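[job 4417] fold queue: 2 targets
>>> target A
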Amino acid sequence: MVFQLFLTLLSVVLTSALGVYVTRLNRKYDGRESELRAIEQKRKKEELAQRNGIKAILRDRVIQADIHFSRTGEISLQDKENVQMMYEAYHDLGGNDIATASYKRVIALPISQEEHIS
């Protein structure tokens, strides 16, 4: 009977200890989960900032190309291809505003007879 009481007491102590251990593990996991969520949110915010920055640079370059080549009245084939590549990347990033009008003006310009070679 004493042995049976000892086994019951041991079972209760082990079950309690296991419960405490599992609770601590859950708290530790919850802390790491929220930490990982915060890291992921920061990564997404930085990615959006990079995306918007690249889009702004491409937008500016297309508009500047329009200003420059509209003044000269012509554009080399290589420059036209560069503007087209910039605009397509800009558009793929979600841009679609004044740069579209600039792009259309640049693409409509005649090709210069003297090719620009870099």
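>>> target B
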Amino acid sequence: MLLISCPNCGPRDETEFHYGGQAHVAYPENPNELNDREWAEFLFYRDNTKGAFAERWLHSTGCRQWFNMLRDTVTYEIQAVYPMGAARPDKAAPAPESGTASTAPDSTTTGTAAPSIAATSIATSTAPASATAPEGATK
């Protein structure tokens, strides 16, 4: 689980929040002048960044306020939490109390432990593939 530091309420469990998509997506100045392709790009096209990514979050079970978060999409490390309307902070300087991802072995978010397959019985066949494949199957 992530520990997200709400700017109003302090650190809370990630289950209290809802993801709101990419932050800093500017609304078109003249939306009525956009053609269908431009409008679709505004509505649906978003960055798919590997690394630091600015996101919007809602503290839905707490103060019910929106805020922005700079989070690494690979490690889940929260680098900064900042209010709506504020500029994106420098991604090289992580905030010390902004939150952290759990690295416990049993973590479903970022842990390194994987299901053990040591006790799993997998039958292996020494017969040629053509003898075990159903008729009409391709190799």
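[job 4417] complete. Note on B: The beta strands are 2-6, 10-13, 18-22, 52-58, 66-72, 78-83, 99-101.
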